[in-house]
Design brief:
With 113 residues, the protein is α/β, with parallel strands linked by helices. The protein has one domain (2-109): Response regulator (Rossmann fold), CATH 3.40.50.2300. It is 39% helix and 19% strand. It is built from four helices and five strands. It has helices at residues 22-31, 50-60, 74-87, 101-109; strands at residues 2-6, 17-19, 34-39, 66-69, 93-95. α2 links the parallel β3 (34-39) and β4 (66-69). The longest helix has 14 residues, at 74-87. The protein is globular. The two termini are 17 Å apart.
Length: 113
């Protein structure tokens, strides 16, 4: 089981697999069992964004166990949250905001050095 952090700019938290593009994130969702997925909206000029990922996740039924939205784009966060909320399976936990510090600490502690 892995944790995935989709962001083209920010540093990836310890214990997470970085995905810098929508395609990288989709590949991880298709090939791995994902526990925590943290999403950014803006992924670079002219590049697919977080909403493009969410649309594909919804249409393909590709969902992790937990989803957080760490984007600084308020409009993007609301769009992603609304589509995820409407399409996610009941067992998927969706949070309309970033991961809490306690969860980040818990995940980083599980990493083998």
């Amino acid at each position: 089981m892995i944790h995935v952090y989709l962001d083209d700019y920010r540093a990836c938290p310890k214990g997470f697999v970085p995905a810098r593009t929508v395609d990288e994130c989709l590949l991880l969702l298709q090939e791995c069992e994902v526990d925590v997925l943290s999403l950014d909206y803006d992924l670079g000029w002219g590049q697919p964004n977080g909403m493009d990922l969410v649309r594909t996740m919804a249409s393909a039924g590709l969902f992790p166990k937990r989803i957080y939205l760490h984007t600084s784009s308020e409009a993007g966060r609301q769009q992603m949250f609304q589509m995820l909320y409407a399409s996610k399976p009941e067992h998927v936990r969706l949070t309309n905001g970033p991961m809490p510090p306690g969860l980040l600490a818990e995940i980083s502690e599980t990493v083998q050095e």
